[in-house]
Write a structure and sequence with these properties.
Layout lengths: L1 E10 L2 E7 L1 H4 L7 E5 L7 E9 L4 E7 L3 H6 L5 E2 L1 E6 L4 H4 L9 E6 L3 H13 L5 E6 L8 H7 L2 E6 L6 E2 L2 H8 L5 E5 L2 H13 L3 E5 L15 E4 L2 E4 H4 L2 E3 L5 H8 L3 H15 L7
Helix pairs in contact: 4-5, 6-7
The chain binds nicotinamide-adenine-dinucleotide (NAD) and FE2/S2 (inorganic) cluster.
The site of nicotinamide-adenine-dinucleotide has 26 residues, from helix 4, strand 9, helix 6 and helix 7.
């Protein structure tokens, strides 16, 4: 059991959870993820690490309520049944900052994809990098942790779909305007965004790292649930990733796989909403 210190709503369908997880934090590095279980019989949910404090043993996670299991997660307040991790490989720039010293780096985040961007940019700031961030959300209310990212980034370009804050449009609109200033991109967010960012950067020959979050079950390379195709070869996001070269990812296959369980997920969500009562519904 892992003690929950906080599990609070920070925007529509977005939650911040803080949990004491000493064994996980001891080895955590930027870019890694954990798999959590709300209760003993709950589904396993992969979540990228938002922050971790090795002094207080507090692990922070930001998650979006999108289905039955994340809805259940949003209702618990005392203990998490399980937190497995850290899983996956750490961000390659944070592992070998010395190899990237001469690069002009931009992070491109979409929606809750900003959560795993924060620890990477924080780590790189501590290693004397000036990192810019292009951060897009549907509307102003969905722009998360602005103070935190502004405290670690060199510059933040905000963009909202409806123009309610920053530029109007998608992250790709801002990237196309600014791309001549960069020679390395890291992008985390919806698959379609990472696909479009990668297509754009391919045109300009800018290396691009993406962080994939396909369906996962065991998180240890045994079940095959997170299989993706990289440069025509099968890879497992949980152990070979989650980061890959965006120009080598078969995004169309991943997008197709993401929709396989749509109907089952919808039914499960309806059942969970019924079980939890009328105050617990996805907005
Ligand atoms: P969203 O659908 O609201 O999109 C966020 C932003 O992405 C948009 O505002 C826009 O700027 C950009 N975007 C969206 N569609 C685009 C397109 N077609 N072309 C170019 N840019 C586009 O995002 P959300 O609802 O907050 O969802 C966040 C997603 O991030 C989820 O799919 C989640 O699974 C994913 N995520 C991934 C990781 C990871 O490690 N890979 C971590 C956290 C979240
Ligand atoms: Fe099972 Fe990756 S989640 S192989």
């Amino acid at each position: 059991m892992y003690e929950i210190l906080k599990n609070e709503k920070i925007a529509t369908n977005c939650y911040l959870m803080e949990v004491v997880a000493k064994d996980v934090i001891r080895n955590a590095k930027p870019g890694q993820f954990v798999i959590v279980m709300a209760k003993e019989d709950s589904e396993r949910i992969p979540l990228t690490i938002y922050d971790y404090d090795k002094d207080s043993d507090v692990l922070s996670l930001i998650y979006q309520v999108v289905g039955a299991s994340t809805l259940e997660l949003s209702t618990i307040s005392k203990n998490l049944f399980a937190v497995s991790g850290p899983l996956g490989k750490a961000n390659e720039i944070c592992v070998h900052p010395e190899l990237f010293k001469d690069k002009k780096i931009v992070y491109i985040a979409g929606g809750v994809g900003i959560a795993p961007v924060y620890p990477q940019v924080k780590y790189l700031k501590n290693h004397h990098f000036d990192i810019d961030i292009i951060y897009g959300a549907r509307e102003k209310e969905l722009l998360l942790i602005q103070d935190k990212i502004e405290s670690v980034a060199h510059k933040v370009f905000y963009v909202t779909d409806d123009g309610s804050y920053g530029d109007k449009g998608f992250v790709t609109n801002v990237l196309e305007r600014e791309i001549q200033n960069y020679d390395l991109c890291v992008t985390i967010g919806p698959l379609i965004m990472m696909k479009n960012v990668s297509e754009l950067t391919r045109k300009y020959h800018v290396k691009t790292i993406v962080s994939l979050n396909p369906l996962m079950v065991d998180g240890s390379g045994m079940c095959g649930a997170c299989r993706c195709e990289i440069e025509g070869k099968p890879k497992f996001a949980c152990i070979d990733g989650p980061e890959f070269d965006g120009h080598q990812v078969n995004f169309d296959l991943l997008i197709k796989r993401m929709h396989i369980y749509k109907e089952e997920e919808k039914e499960k969500l309806l059942q969970m909403e019924k079980d939890l009562g009328k105050d617990c519904e996805v907005e």
